[in-house]
Structure to design on (93 residues):
């Protein structure tokens, strides 16, 4: 009987204990700052986030913000123009 060789692994391996836990995506810092400011924002006031200061595109930051908003069950709205991303708390109806 002949021996069948196993195909080599496609990727390197590591101990599961050494795998980083938690996801700190590239948007985490700006999203955390926006959510923190939203917590202290009075009704009827919007945050004015300068797009020029964002490391990522407006669309990518807005998507990351949308994920964080839904994850934390918030009611938040956004708008934008060529210079700013506006973010505010919407009142729950």
């Amino acid at each position: 009987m002949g021996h069948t060789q196993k195909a080599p692994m496609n990727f390197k391996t590591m101990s599961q204990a050494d795998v980083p836990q938690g996801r700190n995506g590239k948007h985490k810092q700006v999203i955390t700052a926006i959510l923190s400011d939203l917590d202290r924002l009075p009704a009827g006031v919007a945050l004015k986030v300068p797009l020029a200061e964002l490391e990522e595109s407006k669309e990518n930051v807005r998507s990351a913000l949308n994920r964080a908003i839904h994850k934390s069950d918030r009611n938040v709205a956004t708008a934008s123009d060529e210079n700013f991303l506006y973010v505010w708390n919407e009142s729950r109806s």
User: Anything to note?
Assistant: The chain has a mean pLDDT of 86.
